Structure formats: structure tokens, C-alpha cells
Amino acid sequence: MRKLLLSFLVFTTFSAISQNVLTEKNLNISFSGFIKNDFLFDTRKNAEAVDGLYTLWPLAPSYDANGEDINAKGSVRMLNVTTRFATRLTGLQIGNAKIVGYIEVDFSGGSVTNSLRFRHGYTTINWPKTQILFGRAWHPTFVEKVFPSVLNLNTGVPFQVFNRSPQLRVTHSLTKNLDVIAAAIYQTKYVSMGPVGTSANYQRDALAPNLHLQLQYYDENWVVGAGYDWKMIQPRETTTGANGDIYIADEKLASSAALAYVKYTNAKFQIKAKSMYGQNVSESLFPGGYAVASVNTQTGAESYTPTNHCYNFVNVTYGEKWQVGVFAGYMKNFGTSENPVGPFYARGSDVAYAYRISPQLVYKYKNFMLGFEPEITTAAYGTIDYNDKGKVKDAEEVTNVRGLVTLFYFF
């Protein structure tokens, strides 16, 4: 009886407070999205996802008994697996703070992927100068104001971040045109690599969020910014010693990334550029990761060294009803911070560099858009030099040419 009475008092007190502070003002639900259909052909096999609609880079040569490259084989597909649906909820206030909810999914239904894919789901609390975001959204290194205007689903990977993660993000306006952005991010779907494959457990076991700090200036014509990103993971929970005994492992790997970007817009003309130097950023679908730097032969304890890469792109577009554009990207592998001795837990650890050139032609009419985008991507594969900090030597290039025709109906 006492518990029931206490519960009643707590409920009524909360209700009274809610009535004074929380006011429902015309709660609105709006819907948006698009229907998307793609026709594409490739001249070579690629590292890819979403039934091949999402490409990373061309695969390395793999030779058959006659010395012919198995991966030098073309393909043709027609897909509509990224039709998208979004819901926004507005109209709720707590005091002078406006609360907005956002959910976004797409229908990844194809021969391999066949599901309703959860993309974004977050709530924002908005004051005149401060916004708090809580939920799954683009990673702050993606930079929503400066990302490539390309038709390919990969949005510029491996030269641009692709990562949506749960986070607590605070954006505060220092002045009318200058924001500071701080975030604590956790991994769920876009995760680090390690001894048991890709997993969110590596960050979870390190007991530290991915921390981010960014400064961003913007006005009618310009967006300019820079940021710093820090992350810690623990690749192993236990190790096995020489005599078969099990030992608790606590070795961690800290890594960081720095980025800078700019966008200029003037009427129909727009140019964007971004550069990011990153260690162990495979969770953003980049080439990179880390390697074992040393092993204790008695306990099996390992230390680790991150890979170091630089990722860059420039994107220019012009037009309105008819729009032309070009995307150019370049990625460079600088090897590891220390000499590696053991395996690499990384994507593309044997890729010395990669580059892409991708022009586009787009026609827009109201809610309808039709576009053509040829994409030429080259990756240079070589041999990892374990005596020279994991640098890739004697690299040879392979190239894929993708032709993409895509049709959008926006709503």
C-alpha cells in the first residue's frame, strides 16, 4: 500500500510539473523522401554493398590457371533498393526549447539485401543559440553542409566519410555565423575492425566514447570549418599464452583524425573541398585500420599501431534545371605509426593510393530528376613493407569504370 501511494504521489507531482512546463502546440507530422531507380554497369568487380549499388574501390587482380584476371569482369544491373521515407515531428516545446523528432528509413529490398533499413533516428532540443541532438545521425566528420553532390550511393567513399552513429551532439552559436560543435559518439552499425571481425565491442570495452570537436563558419556564400576527432578501442578481452593459459587483456589503441573543409556558393555555381587525415577510421568505410605492433610470447599480450591515411575531394557543380558537375577524389596510405609485426585489422591495407574522377549531367523538373554519372575509380595495390612502417611498395593500378543512370521522384 505504501509503495502504491508513493507511486501515485510521484506520478501526480510529475504530471503537475509537466502541465506547467511541457506544452503541446499543434504537433505536426510531415513526410518526405524519394523513389529512386538505378541502371548501372561496371567494367570490373568491386568491393561493394547493397547489391553492388554501393561501391568502395575496384578489387585487386586474382588470376586463374591461365593467368587471366578473374576480377576483370564487367556486370550490368538495374536496382531500386534505396527508395527512402522520412518522418519529422514538430510542434512540441519545453519552456522556450523546441523539440523536433526525425526518423528515416529506406527499403533495401534486392537479391542480397532485403529489409527495411534504419538510417536516422534522433531528437533535437533547440534553443535560440544552442541545439542538443540525441540519437543516430551522420557522424560529425561527415559534415552535412559540405558533402559531395554525386548520384552514386557511396557519397564519395573512399574519399569522404560515410558513417551514421548514435551520439550526443551539442551545437552552440558563438556568433551569428560561427558555431562550435562537440559530440560523444558510439558505434553500432558502422564499427571498427579487429580480431573477431567488425564489431562495436572494441569501442564498448575501451569504456570511452568517440569524442569530436569542430568549429564552423557560414554565411550566404561560404561554409568553412575544421575539426578534431579522437577514438579509443580495445581489440581483445583475453589472450592465450605460450602454455595455453588465458590472460585478461587490457591493451587499448587511441587514434585521432583532423579535417578541414570549405564550400563556396554563388547563384548556380558551387564548389566544395575537404581534406581529412585519419588514423584507424575503418568504421567510416575508409581504407585503414590498425596492425599488431608487438606480441608478448609468454602471455600473448599485443600492442597495436594505427594506419595513417589522407582522404581528399573536390566537387564542382553548375546549373539549376540542367546541372553539370565533376567530382575528383584522392586517397593516400602513409603506412602505420610503428613497424607492424602481426596481422592487419584494416580495409585496403595493401592499397597504396586511390583516385577517382566522376563527371555528371542532371536534369531537374519540379519533383523529378534524371541523371547520368560515369565514375572512373583507380586503386593501386602493392606489397606491405613490415620493415618500413607498413608502407605499400611496388603498387600497380587497377581501374573500374562505372556508368550510372538514375531517376528520382521526390515527395
Q: How would you describe this protein?
A:
With 411 residues, this protein is mainly beta. Helix content is 6%, strand content 61%. It is built from two helices and 23 strands. It has helices spanning 2-21, 201-206, and strands at 22-42, 46-49, 54-58, 75-79, 84-94, 97-109, 114-126, 130-138, 164-175, 178-185, 210-218, 222-233, 238-240, 246-248, 253-266, 269-279, 288-295, 302-319, 322-336, 344-347, 351-365, 368-385, 391-410. The strands form three sheets. The chain has a 16-stranded antiparallel barrel. Strands 2-3 form a two-stranded antiparallel ribbon. Strand 5 and strand 6 form a beta hairpin. The longest helix is centred in the N-terminal third of the chain and has 20 residues, at 2-21. The protein is globular. The protein starts with a helix and ends with a strand. The relative contact order is 0.13. The model is unreliable at 1-23 (pLDDT under 50).
Quickly describe the structure:
The chain has 411 residues and is mainly beta. The protein contains 2 helices and 23 strands. A hairpin with a 5-residue loop joins strand 13 (238-240) and strand 14 (246-248).
